[in-house]
């Protein structure tokens, strides 16, 4: 019985299929994905990073499916060691402007969730780029009401145009406003232009 328990506790040292296994040659400064994560390549970076982590059997750390054992658990320290390794891999695969927003987060899964929230919320910057490129051939929504408009399409069109103006304004801001810019982009619905100005210049 004692031998079986000891074997289970030391399995991560020799079994490469164990998610807590770390090969002696694995380097915390390793860059798993290139190009580095920037403001405009998150979908591809996310896919490539998951593939890279899966090959190392460490994707569970970012997906949150391998939770931290209790402090009294003999494997707690090993989990923390692997978690720090994954955090370092994530950090070294980001540009400095992105890394500074997550450098104090102590869980790989929380970093992953933060990045998904930051970049996956409708990918509004990319949408704005496409809208700008297609502006000349875009078919504008039309009201089909026979007399006075009652379908609300005009207010919807105005809201879309206002949002486009706000997004273009945010894209033109300097990097010093990157944090508040991200906060505004995550708001649902997006604030009006006056509210956006007040948030920027607080």
UniProtKB/TrEMBL annotation:
Location of the Retrotransposon Copia-like N-terminal domain: 23-69
UniProt cross-references to Pfam families, sorted A to Z: Retrotran_gag_3 (PF14244)
Top-level division of the source organism's lineage: Eukaryota
Protein name stated in the entry: Retrotransposon Copia-like N-terminal domain-containing protein
């Amino acid at each position: 019985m004692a031998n079986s328990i000891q074997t289970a506790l030391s399995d991560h040292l020799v079994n490469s299929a164990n998610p807590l296994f770390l090969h002696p040659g694995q380097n915390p400064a390793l860059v798993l994905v290139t190009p580095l994560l920037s403001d405009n390549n998150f979908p591809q970076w996310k896919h490539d990073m998951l593939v890279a982590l899966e090959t190392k059997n460490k994707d569970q750390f970012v997906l949150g499916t391998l939770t931290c054992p209790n402090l009294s658990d003999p494997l707690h320290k090993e989990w923390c060691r692997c978690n720090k390794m994954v955090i370092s891999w994530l950090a070294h695969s980001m540009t400095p402007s992105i890394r500074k927003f997550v450098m104090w987060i102590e869980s790989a899964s929380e970093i992953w969730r933060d990045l998904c929230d930051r970049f996956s919320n409708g990918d509004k910057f990319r949408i704005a780029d496409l809208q700008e490129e297609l502006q000349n051939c875009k078919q504008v929504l039309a009201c089909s009401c026979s007399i006075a408009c009652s379908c609300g399409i005009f207010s919807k069109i105005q809201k879309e145009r206002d949002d486009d103006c706000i997004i273009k304004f945010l894209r033109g801001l300097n990097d010093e406003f990157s944090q508040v810019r991200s906060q505004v982009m995550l708001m649902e619905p997006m604030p009006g232009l006056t509210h956006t100005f007040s948030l920027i210049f607080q």
